Amino acid sequence: MEIGSASQDHLKVCKVKKKVLRKQVRAQHTLMRHEGIECVSHATQNLVVANAGLGNGMNRCQLFKIVEEYGLVETLLMPPNKPYSFVKYGTTEDAKKAFDALNGKEVTLEDFGQNIVLYINFVEKVFWKNVVPTSLPPGLTVVENIISPEEERRMLEIIDWREDKDTQKTQKTLKHRRVKHFGYEFCYGSNNVDKNKPLPGGLPEICNLFLEKCLKQGYIKHKPDQLTVNQYEPGQGIPPHIDTHSAFEDEIISLSLGAEIVMDFKHPDGHTVAVMLPRRSLLVMSGESRYLWTHGITPRKYDVIQASELGQKVGTITADVGDLTLHRRETRTSFTFRKVRRSHCNCIYPSVCDSQKGQQRQGQPSVPLSEMEALKLEQEHVHKVYEEIATHFSSTRHSPWPQIVEFLRSLPKGAIVADIGCGNGKYLGINKDLYMIGCDRSKNLVDICGKKGFQAFVCDALAVPIRSGSCDACISVAVIHHFSTAERRLATIRELARLLRPGGTALIYVWAMEQEYRKQKSKYLKEKNDSKGKEEETNPGAMRGLPSDRVPGGSSQGSASSDRLPRDAKAEGCDAKPVAASALPVHTNRTSFHSQDLLVPWHLKSDPKKKRGDAAKLSSPAGSEESQELGPVFHRYYHVFCEGELEAACRALDCVRVQKSYYDQGNWCVVLEKL
Ligand code: MN
Ligand code: ZN
Fold first, then answer.
1. Confidence class of residue 546 from pLDDT cuts 50, 70 and 90?
2. Ligand nearest to the CA of 291
3. End-to-end CA distance of the chain
4. For residue 174, how far is its CA from the centre of ligand 1 (angstroms)?
């Protein structure tokens, strides 16, 4: 049988159609499986266009030109680094037209000259689940138009990249990025400067004028004495790094000349923020953004930026994904000014501080191996510390926690309640219908309770001078995590139980290993939370606002093996690492825990009132509160609990029953009932 050419064509068309359909369905599955994007079979106003994303080189302009042919485009959403985009049309009819015309259509990427094939599906809604309002890293500022085009031209002119012969030492090619140093040579081997060998000539005159202006406007507090000039061609970058603490003072400022570029900042917990540095802008890094976050420039030829404000947009890139596009890089020259440090760095980020790493090794406390050592550790790193910081500590403790308040309000009128480790007594006056008495190991904290008119006395949580069975209820808030062996922690729970009458209840709060920072939950926490009720939901937004004591931050060099803490109830799957190699790591606030046993720094502010006044006065964007006038640092010992660990300890006691167990804003909590 002969097949006519017409029907042969028909067959070919059929084959192509089938192939397109197959690929379209495959795109559907991929979107669902990997991105959680649900495609629908009926027509809507909204399309998801597979293969036309910023992630595979489609730029916003080109995609817009393609999709606008079929009707009025209301929204074009291009998520960063994704191989798809969303289009919303004014009507379903227009969306249907685009669907029919574009499915299987081959297009050539303008920026790359490669061909791609579009596959289209309908979706109910145009959305991007990862849209989180991002803000700049704390302590970071970008000042736009800090210099005029004329000043920019003159500054670029003073750098002669060709004067090779004499200045070979000061001009280097690093992965093709060109670098020149003034004031002091920066050595990339040691990542430090030779502080005794200033370079002849100092900083160029034109810089002095500019720096005077920065000082006057308050962007910096000290005049820099070191300048590094970097020149980046498209495709070049700089690896993520933190400028060595011991080499330079707090504030680091950097001018972007010739072209804009995107700089990536990364918190040790993995949170990244892409920051647009417009041409002729000044980047000011201070405090947390200077000391704790890494910064770097990804080597690439295109940046993802906001389309509508090309070249003028300051701030984070992912804040508004509705307007992202690709932008070709051009030659950018940066002038980075730093002040060479003459003293040790005393920052509050010990886990990333080279100055403090050396200090820590000498006389750093270690995990206790005996009862005596445990006692000594707690005396030195709990009792003494709270005595010293009592006033400042108390000034940061005002707001009672809702679920603890609820527990106290639920108790019957006239109930006798003991707050073991009452601190400044913030729970003693919550329910006037109770007879509440507090105790604490710190005399200064007990005195503060007395001044507030509360009943409180000094005692150790392991030996409370209250008759057995005399309390209707007890609370122990943020106390047991200060005991440094599993035996001692269990003994404090036993002591709580002893105080209770049969049927009486105790509420216990301890710090949780599982923390989250902004939206970045630990994987562990994410999994567990899925199966839990609402009361266990944490409040990530509140985390940063909490007093630093309640905001367990990160830690540093925790190492594994649990054989020194044999009785620690380690829940299965817990990613905690009991410290074995003796030295207790010093934690960096607002980063996640990497060790169950650790030291948490407390930065004493001698006069909290004065401090608050200073903070309020701050007008300079360079001044992050924390970077200023640091007082003495105290290290408090903590054992952070894994999920199930507190509960398991309670279950080890025959005389109590666990009534309730939950997670509350970074704490593991149980309610016990005396049997
Ligand atoms: Mn740097
Ligand atoms: Zn430091």
1. very low
2. 2
3. 92
4. 14
- 185 exposed, middle or buried (CB, 10 Å; 0-12, 13-18, 19+)? middle
**Residues carrying CATH 3.30.70.330, the chain:** 2-123
If you measure from the C-alpha of residue 243 to the centroid of ligand 1, how many angstroms do you get, rounded to a whole number? 5
HSE value, Cβ hemisphere, 13 Å, CA-based, for 348: 26
Report CA(136)–ligand 1 centroid distance (Å).
17
Residues 6+ apart with CB under 8 A from 84: 31, 35, 37, 48, 49, 50, 51, 52, 53, 55
Q: Average of pLDDT values for 168-176?
A: 55
Q: 242 C-alpha to center of ligand 1: Å?
A: 6
CATH number of the structural domain 371-554+640-674: 3.40.50.150
Q: Which residues contact 613 (CB under 8 A, 6 or more apart)?
A: none
CA distances from 563 to 555, 560, 580, 582, 584 (A): 21, 9, 8, 12, 16
CA–centroid distance, residue 185 to ligand 1 (Å): 14
CA angle 191, 197, 200 (to 5 degrees): 115
**CA neighbours closer than 13 Å in the CB half-sphere of residue 490:** 16
Instruction: Among the bound ligands, name the one nearest to the CA of residue 247.
Output: 2
Smallest-distance ligand from the CA of 243: 1
Give yes or no for residue 96 having a pLDDT over 90. Answer: yes
What architecture is the 140-338 domain classified under in CATH?
Sandwich (2.60)
What's the pLDDT score for residue 17? Answer: 83
Q: What's the 295 CA to ligand 1 centre distance in angstroms?
A: 6
Q: Mean pLDDT of all residues in the chain?
A: 81
Tokens standing for 542? 């509140």
Give the Å distance between the CA of 583 and the centre of ligand 2.
Answer: 19
Q: 352 CA to middle of ligand 2, Å? A: 7
Residues of the chain with CATH 2.60.120.1520: 140-338
- Mean predicted confidence (pLDDT) in 265-279: 88
Which residues make Cβ contacts (< 8 Å) with residue 339, sequence separation at least 6? 222, 223, 224, 225, 226, 248, 249, 251
CA of 338 to the centre of ligand 1 (A): 10
Beta strands 171-174 and 294-297: pairing type?
unpaired
Task: Look up the CATH number of domain 2-123.
Answer: 3.30.70.330
pLDDT digit string (tens) for 392-436?
A: 999 988 889 999 999 999 999 999 999 999 999 999 999 999 999
Strands 416-420 and 435-440: parallel
Cβ neighbours around 74 below 10 Å, total: 14
pLDDT tens by residue, 75-95: 888 887 788 998 989 899 999
- Tell me what pLDDT residue 13 has: 76
Q: What is the pTM (predicted TM-score) of this model?
A: 0.62
Helices (H), 596-638: 608-617
Least confident among 173-177, 312-316, 583-587:
312-316
Rg (CA), the chain: 31
Residue 521 pLDDT exceeds 50: no
Confidence (pLDDT) at 240: 93
Determine the length of the chain: 675
- Ligand 1 centre to CA of 155 (Å) is 20
How many angstroms separate the most distant Cα atoms in the chain?
106
Predicted pLDDT at 626: 38
Q: How close is the Cα of 534 to the center of ligand 2, in Å?
A: 40
Q: What is the structure's pLDDT at 565?
A: 30
The residues of the chain that CATH labels 3.40.50.150 are 371-554+640-674
Compute the distance from residue 294 Cα to the ligand 1 centre, in Å: 8
Report how far apart, in Å, the C-alpha atoms of 646 and of each of 512, 516, 639, 661 are.
10, 19, 11, 9
